[in-house]
Amino acid sequence: HSGLIDAGPSLSDEKPVNRRASRSAAAEPAPRTASGREKSKGSFDRISNVSMYALARRGMSSREMHDYLLGREFELSEVDIEIERLEKVALLDDHALAETLIRTLQVRKGLGRSALTAELRRRNVDPVAVESALAVLDDDDELERAVVIAMKRAGQLRSLDATTAKRRLGDFLMRRGSKAVQAALAPAGPTFR
């Protein structure tokens, strides 16, 4: 014996520590519970990224987002939590979306009340939000827009006889009402052969 005290295994005897493996094990998301009520951080990040990407492309109703996320194969409980989160921070707001869509569709396409209602329903906007946004529309303003559109269209129908022009313009403006057709084809309007 040389008189040295055995201090245990030397550094060369120790197993090397895989620091990368220990970091990734700590960063792994927590496993889901059997009930599916708890979400892992990784799952939250993923659904949040998907929803934010969708909202960056265009405004969506809560129902559109719900269906979109379910289509991306997220669990229903995760989707419900994400919808609630987005509504809480006003990133999903059916009332604001309805008002924005009405303004945009009136300016760009000159749509009347029934066409606007149909479009908002197609976009799955909450019916209460649709009614609220449509209540703000002024009927006189809507008639004025329809008359402007009818006048433009009537000018394109000059080569037709009056009966055919009225029928075609009436079909074109069916959703805007007969008052706009009458105003556009009044005696002061275009002359038909």
Question: Strands, helices and their partners?
Answer:
Layout: H1 19-27, H2 41-57, H3 62-71, H4 76-88, H5 94-109, H6 113-122, H7 127-135, H8 139-155, H9 162-172, H10 178-184
Helix pairs in contact: 3-4, 5-7, 6-7, 8-10
What does this structure look like?
The chain has 193 residues and is mainly α. It is 62% helix and 0% strand. The chain has ten helices and no strands. It has helices spanning 19-27, 41-57, 62-71, 76-88, 94-109, 113-122, 127-135, 139-155, 162-172, 178-184. The model is unreliable at 2-39 (pLDDT under 50).
> Structural class of the secondary structure composition?
mainly alpha
| Element-by-element helix/strand order | HHHHHHHHHH
Radius of gyration: 32 Å
Low-confidence stretches: 2-39
**How many DSSP E strands?**
0
- The biggest beta sheet, please? none
Q: How far is the N terminus from the C terminus?
A: 127 Å
Mean pLDDT: 75
Percentage of residues in DSSP E strands? under 5%
Alpha plus pi helix count: 10
Instruction: Tell me the helix content.
Output: 55-70%
Oligomeric grouping of the chains: single chain
Query: Globular, elongated, flat, extended or rod-shaped: what is the shape?
Result: elongated
